[in-house]
Amino acid sequence: MPAARVLLADDHALFRDGLASLLTAWDLDVVGQASNGREAVEQVRAHRPDLVLMDVHMPEMNGLEATRIIKTEMPGTKVVIVTVSDAEESLFDAVKSGAEGYILKNASGEEFGRLLSNLARGEPAMSPGLARRLLEEFARGSSRKGAGGDIEEALTPREQEVLEQVAAGKTNREVGGILFVSEETVKYHLKNIMQKLHLRNRAEVVAWAIRHQQYRPDR
């Protein structure tokens, strides 16, 4: 299997170079580096990477704007925000922009590698602490306009079960164990859920579930 192709976007060259060395040591293929959001968009168009590791605060175009453009034009490209900011607003905006993960720059190499492995398995690249804060933020902001809009197609009973377990923070493997189905079956149901609710990623599924009272953090 060919190595995953990764693009780095950060306005600090030293950080990019260090991260590139780490990823290369893990046998990932760093196909390009960008110093701002505009360059990131241009290089994604040119190189079609599998994954973009994106800073938030960059000149010319910030990382969240770049993420929105990339996810609109190339939805198959995964974007993970890598930043120093642990502010809930930045985290929430990253998810709304379509990012599949949010990693703090003070993470250890071991944690960084684990989160990227989670992403490769279809899980969000986010520490448990940030995921918990994301759920709390969605719960507090449940009156905000949601990503999924009105339900155009009803979910099946099994899809509703999968939805509740995913919203509770369970991995696909854990959901499969709870519902006595395979991990592939969970992925199949999750794909159908996203299609029916017009959602783009797992984090938006969680947000939708909380807004529509399919899951409550205090259960």
What can you tell me about this protein's structure?
This protein is of the alpha/beta class and 219 residues long. The protein has 2 domains: 5-138, 3-Layer(aba) Sandwich (Rossmann fold), CATH 3.40.50.2300; 149-211, Winged helix-like DNA-binding domain superfamily/Winged helix DNA-binding domain (Arc Repressor Mutant, subunit A, Orthogonal Bundle). It has 10 helices and 6 strands; from the N terminus they run E-H-E-H-E-H-E-H-E-H-E-H-H-H-H-H. It has helices at residues 13-25, 37-47, 63-73, 88-97, 109-120, 128-140, 157-167, 172-179, 183-197, 202-211; strands at 5-9, 29-34, 51-54, 78-83, 101-104, 125-126. Strands 2-1-3-4-5-6 form a 6-stranded parallel sheet, sandwiched between helices. The longest helix has 15 residues, at 183-197. The protein is globular, with a radius of gyration of 17 Å. It starts with a strand and ends in an 8-residue tail after the last helix. The relative contact order is 0.10.
